[in-house]
UniProtKB/TrEMBL annotation:
It is an enzyme of class 5 (isomerase). InterPro entries: Aldolase_TIM, Ribul_P_3_epim, Ribul_P_3_epim-like, RibuloseP-bd_barrel. Pfam families: Ribul_P_3_epim. A divalent metal cation binds at H31, D33, H64, D173. This is Ribulose-phosphate 3-epimerase. Pathway: Carbohydrate degradation. Keywords: Carbohydrate metabolism, Isomerase, Metal-binding. Binds 1 divalent metal cation per subunit. Transmembrane segments: none annotated. The keyword Isomerase applies. Catalyzes the reversible epimerization of D-ribulose 5-phosphate to D-xylulose 5-phosphate. CDD domains: RPE. Its EC number is 5.1.3.1. The gene is rpe.
Length: 228
């Protein structure tokens, strides 16, 4: 099975975003954290920067919207050039309608859950999604320590995906590094957002390759992946 590594530009040098994007062109996606200082206590970037990034790199953009009123704003990120748009279920009034709108505009639809948000109430929504994001830190800031208490939630989510026979990517975001990625892969994740573990490395491209290799070695023998 293939593991996907999505470097987070939240950990990159914002004054050199085009160069930082090129430094990880071997990555599967470029993870773009959009924060509005309302849904989370931090302010990062918005539609104009996403438009510029889309022109600056051939790596598809994975936009993670940590913003209020996701129903209103998420479709604009598809129009800006994102190949995947993640909205938080806590910020969406009509998540099924929003996921369908994102898909209709030509992007992959993804839904994120904060650490305290359980997956079980959303089991029936999973078929409407292309990816589910389990936050492994509280959203809002990069560089936080990985929350091991999220591993059972990742396992339960993978079990639900398997139960319904879905081709749904399971992404983890927060504290993913060489020290934690194997635990995430064993629990059922197959898409990994890594910020400081990539951009804090002397060779970001090599860091991407090393993380992917670590994850795939675990996935090759993980119980959930056998026969997938």
């Amino acid at each position: 099975m293939a593991a996907q590594i999505n470097p987070s530009i939240l950990s990159a040098d914002f004054a050199r975003l085009a160069e930082e994007a090129k430094a990880v062109e071997g990555a599967d996606w470029l993870h773009v954290d959009v924060m509005d200082n309302h849904f989370v206590p931090n302010l990062t970037l918005g539609v104009p920067v996403v438009e510029s990034l889309a022109r600056a790199t051939d790596t598809p953009l994975d936009c993670h919207l940590m913003i209020e009123d996701a129903d209103r704003w998420a479709p604009q990120y598809v129009e800006a050039g994102a190949g995947s748009v993640t909205f938080h279920v806590e910020a969406a009034a009509a998540p099924v309608r929003l996921a369908r709108e994102i898909r209709a505009k030509g992007a992959r639809a993804s839904m994120a859950l904060k650490p305290a948000t359980p997956i079980e109430p959303y089991e029936d929504l999973l078929a409407e999604l292309d990816m589910l994001l389990i936050m492994t830190v509280e959203p809002g800031f990069g560089g936080q320590a990985f929350l091991d208490i999220m591993l059972p939630k990742i396992r339960r989510t993978r079990e639900l995906i398997s139960k319904h026979g879905l081709e749904l990517w399971l992404q983890v975001d927060g504290g993913v590094s060489a020290e934690t990625i194997e635990r995430c892969a064993e629990a059922g994740a197959d898409v990994f957002v890594a910020g400081s573990a990539v951009y804090g490395a002397s060779d970001p491209a090599e860091a991407v390759r090393a993380l992917r290799s670590q994850a795939e070695a675990v996935m090759a023998r993980a119980a959930w992946a056998c026969g997938h």
